[in-house]
Known about the structure:
- By secondary structure, the protein is of the alpha/beta class.
- It is 43% helix and 15% strand.
- The chain contains eight helices and seven strands.
- Helix 4 packs parallel to helix 5.
- The longest helix is centred in the middle third of the chain and has 29 residues, at 107-135.
- The protein binds NADP nicotinamide-adenine-dinucleotide phosphate.
- Residues 15-16, 18-22, 40-42, 45, 65-68, 93-96, 116, 143, 145, 188, 190-191, 193-196 line the site of NADP nicotinamide-adenine-dinucleotide phosphate.
Amino acid sequence: MAKLFDLTGRVALVTGGSRGIGKGIARGLAEAGASIALASRDAESLASAAKELAPIGPRVETFPTDVARVDEIERMVTGTLEAFGRLDILVNNAGTNRRGPSVDVSEEDWDLIQTVNLKSVFFACRAAAPAMIRQGGGKIVNIASLTSQVGIRGTAAYGASKGGVLQLTRSLAVEWAEQNIQVNAIGPGFIETDLTEPMFADPQRGPWIQSRIPMGRRGYPADLAGVAVFLGSAASDYLTGQVVYVDGGFLSG
Ligand SMILES: NC(=O)c1ccc[n+]([C@@H]2O[C@H](COP(=O)([O-])OP(=O)(O)OC[C@H]3O[C@@H](n4cnc5c(N)ncnc54)[C@H](OP(=O)(O)O)[C@@H]3O)[C@@H](O)[C@H]2O)c1
């Protein structure tokens, strides 16, 4: 059974891998034996994450990338292929949010959120798929959200982008099924990261979130690692077009 989850010899590219959920996932993939290509904008935090992960897996390389730019996404994928000679697992994790009442959302807010959270996912998939097809298959893991499934106050633009990620996951899963590329998503619940820090600290929202999670605690980036390894490994070879919610029971409550 351990062989099914073994990622030895595999190469995983994780966007937004410098901190938060992306770093937690990259750590899990490295622990399962994968070499890691890490991408995000800030070269310094990327280098520090790479230093942390280096002793865990076989190899880590960094690719400073702004996923809001398609040319940089293409360079990230080309760089990974040049460095490692293959790409087996693409984790589209980089994401952003600007919370607030919809009446205050500017066109710039809307465009940034759709570009970073949704457009980038499509173009990273488009850039990675030809190499995966040449290799005989691959795994794509997109990071969705509870807001792919339900409405949460103050997150309309974000929810629209993450609903898009869900539908994109299904569409590409169907399109690339015959090429042996499995396209799935992880829907994290409320995970403690820089992105959610302001929500947990809010005197109204913080306790509301806590009270709505059946397991009674927020999640941590390490909580996502097991599902990421599963979706990146042979253990999920007949699973495609699905979202696995890792939410402490939130959506069932
Ligand atoms: N935390 C949660 O509870 C939660 C719940 C559901 C879904 N998610 C999703 O999970 C993913 C990770 O979130 P997180 O909570 O870990 O956020 P985070 O702690 O803010 O980390 C975001 C990561 O993405 C990178 N990033 C942001 N904008 C980027 C860009 N334009 N180009 C390249 N990299 C970029 C950041 O690095 P740089 O700033 O250096 O670029 C960082 O590595 C996101 O897609 C988010 O929507 C999070």
